[in-house]
Design brief:
Shape: globular
Distance between the termini: 45 Å
Helix content: 25-40%
Structural class: alpha/beta
GO molecular function: catalytic activity
Number of domains: 1
Strand order of the largest sheet: 1-2-9-8-3-5
Organism: Fraxinus pennsylvanica
Order of helices and strands: EEHEHEEEEHEHEHE
Radius of gyration: 14 Å
Pfam family, one: Rhodanese
Protein name: Rhodanese domain-containing protein
């Protein structure tokens, strides 16, 4: 499922199996869920930059998203972008492509699909 964006670049969506293979070959995983979602569990070695924040008025876009990504990544990095179910990550991937990131893919199905496939996740350690 490709989504055309105004710059002419297409958001490429890969399934979780393809994403896992790309991560094993050196891609980095950008988790765009909220910090709260990320802390409940995430793809191993993922880094978290929320695309949206939960507020009393509902979700709002993180105004510093691109600035935060650019402080962690360069435009040549190979990135897989994921969220909870694969919706926010499409928008985040689109924004990254518009900002001239060259190697960015959206992970279809998000963290939910990753877990459903039994792939490894990092979860918080329970205090005893």
């Amino acid at each position: 499922m490709d989504h055309q964006i105004s710059s002419g670049a297409k958001v490429i969506t890969v399934d979780v199996h393809a994403a896992k293979n790309l991560l094993n070959s050196g891609h980095r995983y950008l988790d765009v869920r909220t910090v709260e979602e990320f802390e409940k569990g995430h793809v191993e070695k993922a880094f978290n930059i929320p695309y949206m924040f939960d507020t009393p008025q509902g979700r709002v876009k993180n105004p510093k998203f691109m600035e935060q990504v650019l402080s962690t990544c360069c435009k040549e990095d190979h990135l897989i972008v994921g969220c909870q179910s694969g919706v926010r990550s499409v928008y985040a991937t689109s924004d990254l492509l518009k900002a001239e990131f060259k190697h960015v893919s959206n992970m279809g199905g998000g963290y939910i699909a990753w877990v459903e496939n039994g792939f490894a996740v990092q979860k918080p350690k329970l205090e005893l």
